[in-house]
Amino acid sequence: MTKKILIADDEQNIVISLEFLMKREGFAVCIANDGQEALDKVRSESPDLVLLDVMMPRKNGFEVCQEIRADGALQGVRILMLTAKGRETEVSKGLAMGADAYMTKPFSTKELVARVKSLLELPA
Asked: Which residues contact 94 (CB under 8 A, 6 or more apart)?
């Protein structure tokens, strides 16, 4: 069965490159351009994994992560936070909020694909 990934980011160039990369790897992809839309799509689309930007309009990635983790129906959703904010405090905060992994921008596409596959327990 094809795994579904939600890309939640407000920067179109990043969305386009992530969408291309994930589709090339065989994943189904849906897009959210802000935090509230990300939450709505998590509930309506039931993605297996969310690539979640931290700095977004309406709700930031930390708030989205916290709300997903607070909803018992969404416990199976994996969260990989992608952000330019790579200081130790942000990484710790993201993981404390319930993110499964945290990567800083810019990132290696090869490393990102490997991380996504490991979170979804797929062979690399």
From this structure: 54, 61, 62, 65, 81, 83, 102
Residues 6+ apart with CB under 8 A from 69: 75, 79, 97, 98
**How far apart are the C-alpha atoms of 21 and 91, rounded to whole Å?**
24
Q: Residue 45 corresponds to which tokens in the numbers above?
A: 């689309």
Task: Using the Cα atoms of residue 93, residue 98, residue 101 and residue 106 in order, give the sign of their dihedral.
Answer: negative
Percent of the chain surpassing pLDDT 90: 78
Cβ atoms within 10 A of the Cβ of 37, count?
19
Mean pLDDT in residue range 46-57: 95
Rounded distance between C-alpha atoms, residue 70 and residue 73, angstroms: 9
């849906």: which residue's tokens? 30
